[in-house]
Structures are given as structure tokens and as C-alpha cells.
Amino acid sequence: MAEHIQVTRSLFDEVMVPNYAPANMIPVKGEGSRVWDQEGLEYVDFAGGIAVSSLGHCHPALVSALKSQADKLWHLSNVLTNEPALRLASKLVQHTFADKVFFANSGAEANEAAFKLARRWALDVHGEAKQEIISFSKSFHGRTFFTVTVGGQASYSDGFGPKPGAVMHAEFNNLDSVKALISDRTCAVVLEPIQGEGGIIPATQEFLQGIRELCDQHNALLVMDEVQTGVGRTGKLFAYMNYNVQPDILTSAKSLGGGFPIGAMLTTDAFAKHLKVGTHGSTYGGNPLGCAVAEAVLDTVNTPEVLDGVVAKERLFRQRLEAINETYQVFSEVRGKGMLLGAVLNERYQGRARDFLLAAADHRLMALVAGANVVRFAPSLVITEQDIHDGMDRFEQAVAQVVNAG
Hints:
This protein is an alpha/beta fold. The chain has 2 domains: 152 residues, Alpha-Beta Complex (Aspartate Aminotransferase, domain 1); 230 residues, Aspartate Aminotransferase, domain 2, CATH 3.40.640.10. The chain has a 7-stranded mixed beta sheet with strand order 4-12-11-10-7-5-6, with helices on both faces. Helix 3 runs antiparallel to helix 12, helix 4 packs parallel to helix 12 and helix 14 crosses helix 15. The longest helix has 25 residues. It is globular, with a radius of gyration of 21 Å. This is Acetylornithine aminotransferase. Belongs to the class-III pyridoxal-phosphate-dependent aminotransferase family. ArgD subfamily.
């Protein structure tokens, strides 16, 4: 008989590596944009598992896909292919610029594959001299050693010994800073269409278009990390579609699985062919369970109803935040697009995003931060108007609590 374990928050401190500091409450159940903890207290979820739960908690289409596939096949390895993986890849190819797909388990793994592909293509076609990767300060691309080095936050990559070389960082939305670094030695420019962890900072049209032109001039690949912005998050299937600027490689994860771990790298035939048999792989990447769930996510999200709904929900979020700000004067602006928004704290509240996060939790609202000065919202793409209003009522109470505490 299985041993009964008393699960409390203190158990985390006993048995888990201390690289996280989770909240004191432990969620046990979710439905839509509501979550319940061990005490039965109900929370409104504006965090979405950090832009992951694209259809909320326990969406019927996802539950059905998972249960159905669970009775058929779980894992095969890549010695064999499987039907869900092929269906999902076909749909991703059909609805994007891409011709080919590689599946992984996370955004970091998708980015790892993208960066390796860019280097491999450059080596095959242009030789060893062409290996430099240009990324941007404040960017985030994952926690593997390669992806965290390409990411533009040294505090995440320092302290683990020698870093992968030939990686440099320009300034986001500053084309001149890229021109100063780019050369025929550059194999790729890597960016998020909206910087997520860096503070919900959208690329300008001119910047993204300029980067595309620079990449073309210098024979470099444009890699777009759409781990946080992809699969409907901005009101288009992928954020590059808002700009009409096409990447050479695109990465996706988070919303793609709606809570089930899956990542994908998308690219064209010209570049895909450089990952020949044996050059890269993933034990679980493209497993039938993950692909079956992701296919259900894609089928549900990639509809005018859901994508147009994201745009309408953004308007409601912005209206409510504006009204709160008129009363309490805490934000300088609201940045972002669709269901990826950042309320930027004004000068009086610099560095205090975490105070607003903790106050929100006091009022049973799950929110996020993006750096020390931005409160981030990344809820379900299908969150109801009622849940938005309920959540915003709670957020208003949280703002009042921080303001009144001084």
C-alpha cells in the first residue's frame, strides 16, 4: 500500500532544491481561469502559468485529447514517428511560413535547437568564421547554458564557469546598436517580438523590418523566439504576423501545449536540411501525448472567434487598468499586445512590482512580474469577461493596499 504523505508548503523546503521560492498556498484544482488551493479558497488566474495555460485549466478539448491518447500510445522514441506528431506538424506548416518542424519539450529546448541549426547552417554553407550570434540585452531564451548565454541577463548565466562563445548583445529597438555589431561573421540575430522577462517591450515595426533587412544584407538568419508570444497570445497565431516580417527560424512552446510540456522549432526547407540524421535529437520530443494535446490547442486557438476575442479582451484589460490608474496613479503606461500585458510602475513606485504581486495574492488574484518595475498579465486566451472584471476588482484592492501602505 502506498505511503500517505502529508503535503504542506513546508515539505517543499525539506525535499526540493531551493532555487524557487513558491507562494505559501498550494493549488489543487483549476477550472477555466479559476484555481482552488488546499483550503478551498478560490483565486482568479491572470498569470496563466507564465503564459502557458492558453485555454485555462482543464479545458474540455484538451482533457479529451489527453484521455483519448492516453489509451492509445504514450511514447515510442524517435526511431519511429507517430500520428499526432505528423498531424500537428502538418497544421503548423499549413498555418505559418514554415516547411519543417522539430519537436522538443520546452522553449529552452526549442531555442537550443534553433541556435544549433543556425550555427550548423553557417558552418556548412559559409565556413567556420561565420558563427557569431547577436541577441539583445534584457532578452530571455531559456535556462540551458547555451540559451541562457544568448539571453541578455548576465545574472542568469554568471557563476557557472566558462560560457559558450561568439555571443554578443545589442540594445532592443535600437537598430544602430545592431549595425555596430553585425558583420559577415554573424550567423544569426535572435529576438523576441515582445520581450517578455525584459518587461513586456514590443519591437517597433521599423526595428523588426530593419533587422530583417540587415540579416539579408549579411547572410544571417533571423530567429524569432515566440515561446511567450506564440499560439494566439497577441491575437494572431504568431506575433510575427502582426509585423508582416518573416523569420527564418521560429520557436514555440508555452501556449502551444496549454499546460502540457511541448516545444517546437519551425523553419524552411533551405535551413532544415542542415539538421541531417543524427545531428540533433530529443528523447521525448514529439511524443504522442504532447502532440495530441498541442493539436487540440492549435485547433481551438486558431479560429477567428478565439483570436478576435483576444483583441477584445485586451481592450477590456486596458480599460480596467486605466480606470484603476486614474484613481491610484501608480502606472506610467501599459505595454504589450493581446493577453500579454505589462503595467509599468511610475517613478513613485520604482522597483516595487513584487509588492503588487504579493498584494494581489492577498486578494486571491494570481499575477506575474516582468522585472522589478512591471506587473505582468498573461491569462487564458479564452478568459471570460466576468473573470476579467472579478480579477480586476481584486487587483484594484491590491493596488489600494500597496498605495495606502505607503
